[in-house]
Design a protein that fits this description.
This protein has helices spanning 18-29, 59-73, 107-134, 146-149, 166-186, 208-216, 230-237; strands at residues 9-13, 33-38, 49-53, 78-81, 139-143, 192-198, 248-251. The chain is an alpha/beta fold and 258 residues long. It has a 7-stranded parallel β-sheet, with helices on both faces. The protein is globular. Bound molecules: nicotinamide-adenine-dinucleotide.
């Protein structure tokens, strides 16, 4: 079944990333106009695709963008937030401060994580809420992680130096609380808000041993493919999920089931 989003306008925050690209692809194919908010560019061949280069941690940039957005589109039906902070985005470097353990964790890395994963989500939600409430069937989808539900399992990283640090898991849990607040405080005005909880996506930067360890701890015995979330995203932002709000939608190969 192909859910229809014709006539709707969406913002995808962090749309240039692995999962974001897939979200944009399926939203556009479903007939939606999509604005990708990211500081890394993404080309996409469609007259319904718009890219806005923005640092989402800068509230003033969000406020200015919102003014232009409102003038052009007049409404916002769908807000998807996929952005997150991961230290150096270009490569997995075990010496990156982002991967330090808690007893040694640099406060500025902790603050940067809070800034992208929580503060930016707060700014964008806050500044677009009034417009969403005036739009038809508005829906928010925020992205947590299995590590927002359970702790990162340190055994899968061995002594590679790479890991999911404390700020990641703390903010991913925070995203669930934030989304439930939005769902319960604006549901009576017609706004829905849900959380997507993905498990690990396989990519070329991961080591063989990491992939093996991760897969062993996953009931389905493998990592996710980048395109295994998009249909759920489409369902969650479409009117087909009209009775869902405040929900945690877990797609993790069973990682959190045991
Ligand atoms: N990929 C996984 O294995 C996995 C697993 C569980 C949860 N998740 C969650 O899913 C979401 C998407 O993951 P992904 O792998 O696609 O991430 P990604 O790192 O590939 O993409 C994140 C995007 O956010 C953008 N971004 C970061 N900081 C920004 C800033 N200050 N201003 C503007 N843009 C900024 C980046 O440029 C990037 O395009 C994240 O919230 C992540 O925590 C991912």
């Amino acid at each position: 079944m192909q859910y229809k989003l014709k006539g709707k306008v969406a913002i995808v925050v962090g749309g240039s990333g692995q999962i974001g690209k897939e979200t944009i692809d399926i939203l556009i194919k479903s007939g939606c106009q999509v604005v990708n908010l990211d500081y890394v560019g993404l080309r996409f061949k469609s007259k319904n695709y718009y890219f806005k280069k923005i640092d989402i941690t800068n509230e003033l940039e969000i406020i200015n963008f919102k003014k232009d957005f409102q003038k052009k589109f007049k409404k916002l039906n769908i807000l998807v937030n996929h952005a997150h902070y991961k230290g150096n985005p270009k490569k997995l470097d075990p010496n990156n401060n982002f991967f330090k353990s808690l007893d040694d964790y640099p406060s500025n890395e902790w603050k940067k994580t809070i800034d992208v994963n929580l503060n930016a989500m707060f700014y964008i939600t806050k500044h677009f809420l009034k417009l969403m409430l005036k739009s038809k069937n508005p829906v928010i989808l925020n992205t947590s992680s299995t590590y927002g539900k359970v702790s990162p399992n340190k055994s899968i990283y061995g002594n590679s130096g790479i890991n999911a640090p404390v700020g990641y898991t703390a903010t991913k849990a925070g995203i669930i609380g934030f989304t439930k607040y939005v769902a319960t405080h604006y549901g009576d005005r017609g706004l829905r808000a849900n959380v997507l909880i993905p498990g690990g996506v396989e990519n070329k930067n991961q080591s063989k041993s990491f992939k093996k360890n991760y897969s062993n701890l996953t009931p389905l015995k493998r990592m996710a493919k980048q395109n295994e979330y998009k249909r759920a995203v489409l369902f969650l932002v479409s009117d087909e999920s009209s009775y869902m709000t405040g929900s945690e939608f877990i797609i993790d190969g069973g990682w959190t089931a045991w």
